[in-house]
Amino acid sequence: MPHPPFPMHVSVTEAREMLSALLPALGTETVPVAQALGRTLAADLEARVSHPSATESALDGIAARETDTLSASAETPVRLRIAGESRAGVPFDGTVGAGECVRIYTGAPLPAGVDAICPVEELQDDGPEHVLLRRPAFPGDVRPEGGDFRAGEVVMRAGLRLSAPRVALAAALGHARVPVRRRMRVALLSTGDEVIEPGLPLKPGQVYDSNRVGLSAMLQESGCEVIELGHAPDSPASLQAALGAAGGANVLLTSGGVSMGRYDFMRDLLVEHGSVSFWKVRMRPGGPAILGGWNGLPVFGLPGNPVSSLVVFHVIVRPALTGQPVQSLKLRAATPFRGLKDKTAFWRGVIREGEVGDYGAQGSGILRSLSDADALVIVPEGGAVEVGEVVDVVLL
Ligand SMILES: Nc1nc2c(c(=O)[nH]1)N[C@H]1C(S)=C(S)[C@@H](COP(=O)(O)OP(=O)(O)OC[C@H]3O[C@@H](n4cnc5c(N)ncnc54)[C@H](O)[C@@H]3O)O[C@H]1N2
Ligand code: MOO
């Protein structure tokens, strides 16, 4: 292909932006908070209440005035009168006077007049109405009103990925439903004559279809709707039939058949009968990825190599589908990482004691380099990383 009529060797950022530009803007919807896992928050979320809603105890024990208890020790315990009880949901509504305390439980509101807690382990009953403290009550064992968030405060920003802790937070803020981006409907197809369903007897040269399983899992994790197109063998006719079955999808993801081989028909089909926005990305793994269109449907062709397809999904496709940026952080390198002259490398790394080291085998067919790794170590084009240098990593 001497002068292809489309860009080749685009950067990772360009690839992501070109895919985003082809995807439809889907708008937003509200969903029950318990079903929002993985979705992208579409509007800022305010706290409808404060949490804690009142200053409360962090321990089971008694609540007292700190000043009444300062002299308490195992040898000289302090004796207080029990004025009542405060339980989570059933607060004590009186006032606690000097020399008095209330029995209190974790999460129960602190009654007026007291400011400190002594845990049950440091107490001894002294008759039905009194208690002995073997140490002073601590003000630090109370949880102040609004210590987590205050009513009216904007706590979550639009664009956040709703992870499990964030779904819990949205519920704690008082939201039964949350506004989220509509799900991208993604048709998923794996290709290759040698690729067969996991579990079938494996003939020589065959390989189990791990890409479709892995990509489907990543799509679900990302809050996308998956339209399973199954698997197509390496023939233009069967690929065309599969492409035609992707109706209703917003985008089609394929795996395999995009490199230089004679049987890499996916690329040929897009070049000859569809459209191509780019072919090849300056990255490893994942270099042969292709973006194009088929009858108006955006098609992203992921390379067949198992590590390549999942890494390209992670750093290019997922951010474009969800609008959630790739989150990177900086770590010191425990081993050297080689650079590539004209490609950004995403080497698999393991994090130990706050530093990131080389996983070892970095072949694009070594799936364990991804499943056992903690992070992708980003080495920019032309760069190389020495031991002790700080590198950008993307957590897996
Ligand atoms: N002469 C060249 N050969 C290759 C180049 C190149 O530039 N010049 N690029 C290499 C790179 S980089 C990659 S990545 C692969 C990508 O090739 P394809 O997208 O055409 O993928 P296939 O040839 O179909 O398969 C590659 C490899 O992956 C296995 N595979 C495919 N699908 C699956 C699946 N669903 N689950 C598990 N494994 C799968 C397949 O059996 C092959 O082993 O091309 C290099 N070659
Ligand atoms: O990226 Mo290929 O993706 O280097 O094996």
UniProtKB/TrEMBL annotation:
Its cofactor is Mg(2+). GO terms for cellular component: cytosol. Pathway: Cofactor biosynthesis; molybdopterin biosynthesis. SUPFAM superfamilies: MoeA C-terminal domain-like, MoeA N-terminal region -like, Molybdenum cofactor biosynthesis proteins. Residues 187-323 form the MoaB/Mog domain. Keywords: Magnesium, Metal-binding, Molybdenum, Molybdenum cofactor biosynthesis, Transferase. Catalyzes the insertion of molybdate into adenylated molybdopterin with the concomitant release of AMP. This is Molybdopterin molybdenumtransferase.
